[in-house]
Amino acid sequence: MSVFMWQAIYKFSGQETVAGIGQANMSLYLVIVNILTLVFSTEPIFRLSALIRSGNLSVMLLRPVNILMQGFFEYLGRSFPYLLIYMGVFWVVKPISNLLVGLGSLGLFLTIYVMFYMLVTLMGLSSFWLIQIWPMQPVFNACFFLLGGQLFPLQVLPKNFRWLLYNPFSLAGNQLTMLSIGDMSEEEFFRSFLWALIWILLLGVLIHLFWKRGNLRYEGVGM
């Protein structure tokens, strides 16, 4: 429906580009950004919630394994099929002939991937205080829909709202999609990379605080 809507916008506006994006690239954008919504899932929120609510988190804490690191690799494994689809589409749409560009694109993707995992992990840690967190899922999906550019590229927004390009949902959706279709400038690339690092630092501090305070009030089983 989004593709048809944008085809109608191009047809009746008489413009070949909207915010510098042509009709063909707009269709590709909508396809790729919806693939990314599958790559960046909410699963870690409910994984942590189930462990905390059941009290089984205590069993995980006794193991000589970092539970957050373990969760990351589980998250990676669950999204791996969608990652393969995304990488296949990326390669078809924008074949990489320059090794440096390829490494830079991979570096940006990995940085944003880690950042997004930290975001959903932080949301999952709220289970230390909340009885039910399932209402977060529609809120999360709505944020990705509006702030992540799932409905339209955020580049079409007025300049006063361009700061939204660097929120976590936009980095994972809008910005990675613009990178995939080749409509991201070098300046935008470095800005996105810098903001992803800033979010990682901020989320890292918040996760540390939530984890430390949450463990003080946690009552587990099996100890």
Describe this structure in words.
The chain has 223 residues and is mostly helical. The mean pLDDT is 83. It has a two-stranded antiparallel ribbon. The relative contact order is 0.15. The chain is elongated. It has nine helices and two strands; from the N terminus they run αββαααααααα. It is 70% helix and 2% strand. The protein has helices at 2-13, 23-39, 43-54, 57-62, 67-93, 99-124, 136-147, 168-180, 186-217; strands at residues 17-18, 21-22. A hairpin with a 2-residue loop joins strand 1 (17-18) and strand 2. The longest helix is centred in the last third of the chain and has 32 residues, at 186-217.
> Looking across the biggest beta sheet, what order are the strands in?
1-2
Number of strands: 2
User: How widely separated are the two ends?
Assistant: 53 Å
- Count of discrete alpha- or pi-helical segments spanning 4 or more residues: 9
Overall, the morphology is elongated
Percent strand: under 5%
What's the mean pLDDT score? 83
Structural class: mainly alpha
Helix content: over 70%
Radius of gyration: 19 Å
- Helix and strand pattern: HEEHHHHHHHH
* Biggest sheet record: 2 strands, antiparallel
- Residue ranges: pLDDT <50 for 5 or more in a row? none
